[in-house]
Amino acid sequence: MSFLRVNALSVAYGKAYALRGVSLHVEEGESVAIIGPNGAGKTTLLRAISGLVRPADGDIWFDNVRLDRLPPHEIVRLGIAHAPEHRRLAPQMTVLENLELGAYHRRDRKAIRQDMEHIFELFPRLRERLGQHAGTLSGGEQQMLTIARALMARPRLLLLDEPSLGLAPLVKKSIFDALARIQQDGVTVLLAEQDASLALPAVSRAYVLESGRMVMEGPSQMLRQNDYVRQTYLGL
Amino acid sequence: MTASLFFGLLVSGVLIGGLYALAAIGLSLIMGVMRVVNVAHGALYMLGAFFVYTVTVQWGLPFPIAMVVAVAAVFAVGVVVERLIVRPVRHEEVNVLIITFAAAFVLEELAKFIWNPRYKNIPPYIEGNVSVGALQVDQQRLVAFLVAVVLIGILFALIRHTRTGKAIRMVAQDEEAALLLGIHVERLHMLTFGLGAALAAAAAALLGPLYLVYPAMGWNPLLRSFAIVILGGMGSLEGTIVAGLLMGVIEVMTGYFISDRMTTVATFAVLVLIIFLRPTGLFGHPVEER
Ligand SMILES: Nc1ncnc2c1ncn2[C@@H]1O[C@H](COP(=O)(O)OP(=O)(O)OP(=O)(O)O)[C@@H](O)[C@H]1O
Ligand SMILES: [Mg+2]
Questions:
Q1: C-alpha distance from A45 to closest chain B C-alpha (Å)
Q2: Staple partner for B240: which of A71, B14, B28, B266, CB 3.0–4.6 Å?
C-alpha cells in the first residue's frame, strides 16, 4: 500500500467535471510533481486530498486511512499540510501569529519552538519580519511564509500548490532551493506546478494532468526527455 | 449652554455608550467572523434581561449571580441557535437574515409564554450617587460602565492572545485556509455565536434596572447595535467601541436638547447618514485583501 494513493478520482463543480478518473500514488520520502496547464485540475486534486472538495467518485488513502470522507481538520491531524495556491495567509496577523497557526493542532510547545528555529534557518527573512503583518510582506516572503506555516504542522506529507506563482525568477529559485532542503529533511512532497521547467528537476516522479485526466506519468528524468513534454511544457 | 452642563452630558453619554458598545460588540464579532447578520441579537438581549429578572426578583438571589446565570444561559441559547438554524443556511446571506428574524419572533413568543407579556422591573443593584469632580453620577451607571469596560477588555485579550482567539481571527480572514490549518471552523462558529449572544446578555443585565423588561424590548437595542456596527465599520471591533461611545453621546445630547422621544430617530439618522456618506464606517476597510 502506498503512502498516498488516489484511485479513479472524479470531482465535479456542479455539473462540470474538473477531474475524471484520476489515479496517483506517492511513496514515503518521495517527491512527486503534477504538471499541467491552467484549469487542468491540479488545485482540485490537492483540495480533494485535503478534504476541501468531496469527490463524486473514487477514493483517497493516506497511510491506510481513507481520507475522502474525513473533514479537513482531521486530515491535517493525520499529517498532511497544504500550502495552498495564492498563499491564503492571514494578512492582518503577524508573521509569528501565522506561524503559530500553522502549529494549531499541535500541543508539543517545546518541539514547536524548535521547529520554528529550524524554519528560520530555512527562511532567515521571516525571522526579521516576525512582528510584521503578513499582508505587508513581499510576494516572495509571503510564499516563504506559506510554506513555513505548512511546515509548522510538522507534516509527513506536504502539498504545495503553485509555489512559484507570480514571483520573479530569482525568488522562484530561492523557493525551490528551500524545497530541496525540505525534501532532505525527509518530508514527502506532492507539488502542483505549471512551470514544468522548475518542477521536473525538483522531483523524482511526475504526472501530467490535462483537462481533468492524467495523460502521462513517469520518472521526471524520463519526462524531461519526452518529446511531447519538451514541446508542450518545457518550450524546447 | 455652560461648559459644565456640556461636560455632564458628555460623561453620561460616554457611560451609557460603553454599554451600547457592549451590546453591539457581539453582533460585530459574529459579522466579522462568520459574515452573517444575526437579527436575533436583540431577542438574545431580551432573554438576558428576563433571566436576570427571574434570578433576582423571582428567586431573590443577588444581582451578580443573576448576571452570571443570564450570560451562561444566553451563551447556550446562542450556541443552539447557531447549530440548529444558522449553520445549515450560513452561505446564503438572505436566508440567515430571514431565519434569524424568525428566530427572534419565536424567542419573543417563548418569553411571553414562559414569563407572560406584562412589563417588569429589575430592581437597582447599586443605589446612590458618586461625585466625579463637580459632577454627581449615578453609581449604578458608573459600575455598569466599568464592568462593560472590563468585559470588553477580556474579550480583546482572548481574541488577541489565546490560541482559540487567534484561530477565530484566522477564520475571520480566510475560512478555507483555516480549515487547512486543522482549525475546526464549525466549532469556532458555534463558539463565536454563543459569545456574541452572551455579550448581548451581559449588556442587558447591566442595563436591566434602567429599562422595563418585556418580550419586545430587544428591537430597539438591535437597531441601535446595527447603527453602531455600521458606524464603526463592519468587522472592526475597535470601531464598534468608538461608535458605541459616540452613539451614547449622540443619544444623550438628542434627549436633552430635543426630546427623549427623538433618540431612536437620531439613531436611525446616524445609520442612514453613515450608509450614504461612508458605507465602510469610521474604521472599516473596503474589502479585505488577500
Ligand atoms: N470553485 C469552483 N467552482 C467551479 N469550477 C471550478 C472551481 N474551482 C475550479 N473550477 C474549475 O475546475 C477546473 C480545474 O480547476 P483547477 O483550479 O483545479 O485547475 P488548475 O490546474 O489548478 O489550474 P491553475 O494552473 O490555473 O491553477 C477548471 O475548469 C476550473 O474552472
Ligand atoms: Mg491551480
A1: 14
A2: B28
Nearest to B33 by CA among B206, B241, B174: B174
Q: Which atom of ligand 1 is nearest to the CA of A44?
A: 18
Provide the domain limits for residue B88.
26-116+137-217
ipTM of this predicted structure: 0.93
Inter-residue contact B172 to A92 (CB < 8 Å): no
Instruction: Examine residue B149 and state whether it is found in any structural domain, yes or no.
Output: yes
pLDDT in tens, A174-189: 999 999 999 999 999 9
Which chain B residue shows the shortest CA-CA distance from A80? B180
Q: pTM of the prediction?
A: 0.91
How many CA atoms are closer than 13 Å to the CA of B208, on its beta-carbon side?
29
Residue B5 lies in a domain: no
CA distance B176 to chain A (A): 8
**CA nearest to A97 within chain B:** B166
Between A and B, how many residue pairs show a Cβ–Cβ distance under 8 A? 71
pLDDT tens column, A104-140: 999 898 999 999 999 999 999 999 999 999 999 999 9
For residue B1, the model assigns a pLDDT of 65
